[in-house]
Amino acid sequence: LTATAMAAAVAEQLRESFATGRTRPAAWREAQLRGLLRMATEMEAEICDALREDLAKPVTESYVHEISLVKSSCKFALKNLKKWMKPKKVPAGVLTFPSTARIAAEPLGVVLVISAWNYPFLLSMDPVVGAIAAGNAVVLKPSEVAPATSSLLAELLPRFVDSSCIKVVEGGVSETSELLEQKWDKIFYTGNGKVGRVVLSLAAKHLTPVALELGGKCPVVVDSNVDLHVAAKRIAAGKWGCNNGQACVSPDFIITTKSLAPKLLETLEKVLQKFYGYDPLQSPDLSRIVNSNHFKRLRSLMDEEKVKDKIVFGGQSDEMQLKITPTLLMDVPLDSAIMKEEIFGPLLPIITVDKIHESFALINSMTKPLAAYLFTKDSKLKYQFENGISAGATIINDTSIHLTNPHLPFGGVGESGMGAYHGTFSFDAFSHKKAILARFFIGEVKARYPPYTPAKLSIVKGVLKGNLASMIQAILGFPRGGA
Amino acid sequence: MGHQDHSFSCAIHPSSLHIHSAFTLQSELELELERRARKLYEQGGQRTMAVAGLGETVCELRQAYESGKTRSLAWRQAQLRGLLRFLKEEEEAAFAALREDLGKHRAEAYRDEVGLLVKSANEALRQLGKWTTPERVWIPLVAFPATAQIVPEPLGVILVFSCWNVPLGLSLEPLIGAIAAGNAVAVKPSELSPCTAKFIGDNIGRYVDASAVKVVQGGAEVGEQLMEHRWDKVLFTGSPRIGRAVMAAASRHLTPVALELGGKCPCIFDMMGSARELQIAVNRIIGAKWSSCAGQACLAIDYVLVEERYLPILLKVLKSTLKRFFSDPDHMARIVNARHFERLSNLLKDKAVAPSILHGGSMDAKDLYIEPTILLNPPLDSAIMTEEIFGPLLPIITLKKIEDSVAFVRAMPKPLAIYAFTGDAALRRRIVEETSSGTVVFNDALVQYAIDALPFGGVGQSGFGQYHGKYSFEMFSHKKAVMKRGYLIELTLRYPPWNERKINLMRRLYRFDYVGFVLSFLGLRR
């Protein structure tokens, strides 16, 4: 079966399954969510093995950052499903009195989820949880760059969920391209901006709404009067503790003052030595670089002529094992490649400025990131940061942690993406909020209809302006007599 | 560069994909997708490589936004009040422009455009404080002490493409939302309603801050030029064909888009309980078809579905009411231009369709007037039943049972609205649960547009993105997640080096097993 034929067949099958209505009842959705929850629980060891194979991901990260987050997503959805599915009454207002109005969520239909390689289990399952909760049929296309997880998902999902409505399509370039040519009711893509643009342009053909979870250079601004040790630990946890810097919300670079930089550097070095020992290449707690393409890319970022003498810590790598140690760089030129593209690796440049406020101009000269971080105790600076920096999310005094809060929308803005998910936002991302208005036959407003007269117009004007006397007249069928 | 109709002939230009970078190894996927996008572009035909001639306008808007002035509540309120004054002081001129462009009676112009805008601007002024207030959200104990909020912020610089049929409303309603959200805005009214476009362009600068709110005039070429630039959001109201082109052009800059398209809005007509109810229902059907821009409205009733045996009585009341309402042809709007007039007359001239004309059918090309026309059971594969009519022609399709209407509607692309006149609760439930549309309205039509609390927008072929009321504010905002922590409590188990003990502690925490956690932490439990 050619890739084209297969993509068309999958879309067709799912469309038929969706049309039968089986994905709509709460019972079906709950059964699937429970299935996913069981899968994440019973298959924990297998999932950790796959993640280790794909990324050398430490078991703790696999559990904390992927499996447990998927489980809590399922639980959150199960807990709130009935509430989400219930139509919400809204005030219809006086203009259409008497009437009742409500907003009901309905599934979009058949949706396509394209996942990424860095958190291959989480970024596949989390959107799928939302799609199922919203009552859709789903195709999941896991990233082929994390092949062990991809084939594990293809094998496990049919065992735990209804495979007539939830399918996994594995494959590389041609399978993904063919899937993107089909008509879907929504496409949810996690990845980079270049492919994001092409996804958006192919979706335009079918007028398909799209959610894009992209990346960016997440800046960390470190102010002087903070507990440097705690700050350094939190930065390290968000950077190297998240897939060795290969995460869309990883701190990409630090901005701090010239006066604080030496102390910050020293603290970071101490923290890194504590976390990963004196020979980080041997540490079992660091993920490896996903493949040799990315390894070469990161090495070339480090080896660039104007950058290589700025390395102040780390910089070691092992091509055989695809490992690169946590690397700190001081004041690399702003026009170097490492400062122009998202690093997505264990390299952390530190840029120094004279006054901390100058960091704002630097951040605003770049495209809007997925997250912006600030370490400070100065409430004025906090306020200015919140209002002056636009990003998917702004975190004060920590990094990456907002991922775990299901009450916060997770998504980008500008170059970092469009649309948000997690918690209720996942349900909303895959739903259409249908407005339903019911009117009655009492109170027929004659003034609405032709033949138009000045008297009718004046009643209509009054009603639209909220004038009570006009409304009463309108409902009583004024102007009386005549047409 | 003459374009016959407003067609955007581009997809995206390959050079702008710019996937290559000196240090990035381009993945195979990127290469493949680039190849396909290039193919789409080539299929789209020769593109006008017009230099981005509107650069200055866009630049000024961006500078106005970057200066920060659009963010203050005071500025937003001043613009909204300015719009209210504009609508009040220029009301007569607005009526005249709408009459010139579309033959709209002043009553329609007020009811459907001016009046609704006044309502929306007032609502925005009333609610602005509430809408802009950050929302506090729950935080798990694990993160204590911390606060979490959702903070709305403007997207930046917005582009609004309006449409010719509600030329004032579809320009200013989105403008109200974009301003309330704190953005700088460019509005491009449709050149097919030139008097209203000129009216807006000539006058609005006196009432709002012209450095941050601009009107751009022109046709398809200007639209294409505008899309060369980066916007923070684009709202397009119009046909699916151009909607596709706008979305494809926006993809180049990763610009999010909202599309308000059309569709064939069906009216399911079940038997009414009494003669009085039947009359009221017919009033409302006529109101939603011929009394709204002569049927040239995205929410207009496109066709009616009725049971065979109720057809005679429906027809009788329709005809008599039409006669009463439109005794003076002046009370119905005109067709916007010769091209649409010809399109509509071709729908009727179709040999397979002409025999089904039951009432009306007369046309005056000079006056661009088409009489209210009713057809009975035209072939379902004829153009009048496959394309959005957007005119004063009403096909009535008869069914054996009214319940068959659900399957009929499901077989068509999802419309902007489904209307149903019925008291049957079971049928109502089936319509809501088994069909999909932007909106469902029972026992009336079109009026949902006026309700601020209901989101207005489509689904599937009728578009995506919703606005009106607070949805307008949200459409043009980014909801930023903001989390603040302190240094007081540090959970060292977050950090490597990892060991089994730390993992077990985390398991307990993530199950919110706080007691177990504390005991383990103190070493009193494994």
Automatic annotation (TrEMBL), chain A:
| EC number per UniProt | 1.2.1.3
Q: Which Gene3D superfamilies does the entry link to?
A: Aldehyde Dehydrogenase, Chain A, domain 1 (3.40.605.10), Aldehyde Dehydrogenase, Chain A, domain 2 (3.40.309.10)
Matches recorded under InterPro entries: Ald_DH/histidinol_DH (IPR016161), Ald_DH_C (IPR016163), Ald_DH_N (IPR016162), Aldehyde_DH_dom (IPR015590), Aldehyde_DH_NAD(P) (IPR012394)
Task: For this entry, list what GO says about its biological process.
Answer: aldehyde metabolic process; response to abscisic acid
* Annotated Aldehyde dehydrogenase domain residues: 9-435
Q: Where is the active site?
A: 213, 248
Keyword Metal-binding present in the record's keywords: the answer is no
GO MF entry, a single one: aldehyde dehydrogenase (NAD+) activity
Say which enzyme class the record assigns: oxidoreductase
Q: Known catalysed reaction(s)?
A: an aldehyde + NAD(+) + H2O = a carboxylate + NADH + 2 H(+)
Q: Name one GO cellular component term.
A: cytoplasm
Going by the UniProt record, its keywords in alphabetical order are: NAD, Oxidoreductase
A Pfam cross-reference name: Aldedh
Q: Which SUPFAM superfamilies match?
A: ALDH-like
Q: Give the family this protein belongs to, as stated in its UniProt record.
A: Belongs to the aldehyde dehydrogenase family.
UniProt name for this protein: aldehyde dehydrogenase (NAD(+))
Q: Which organism is it from?
A: Eragrostis curvula
Automatic annotation (TrEMBL), chain B:
The EC category is oxidoreductase
Keywords tagged on the record: NAD, Oxidoreductase
UniProt GO molecular function: aldehyde dehydrogenase (NAD+) activity
> Quick check: keyword Membrane in the entry?
no
Question: What GO cellular component term, any one, is given?
Answer: cytoplasm
Q: Where is the active site?
A: 260, 298
Ranges for the Aldehyde dehydrogenase domain?
61-482
Transmembrane stretches in the record are none
Q: Which reaction does it catalyse?
A: an aldehyde + NAD(+) + H2O = a carboxylate + NADH + 2 H(+)
Domain of life of the native organism = Eukaryota
* InterPro entries reported in the protein's UniProt record: Ald_DH/histidinol_DH, Ald_DH_C, Ald_DH_N, Aldehyde_DH_dom, Aldehyde_DH_NAD(P)
Asked whether the UniProt record includes Nuclease among its keywords, one would answer no
User: Under which EC number(s) is this enzyme classified?
Assistant: 1.2.1.3
| Example of a GO biological process term | aldehyde metabolic process
The UniProt entry's sequence similarity note says: Belongs to the aldehyde dehydrogenase family.
What's the protein called, per UniProt? aldehyde dehydrogenase (NAD(+))
Q: What is the lineage of its organism?
A: Eukaryota, Viridiplantae, Streptophyta, Embryophyta, Tracheophyta
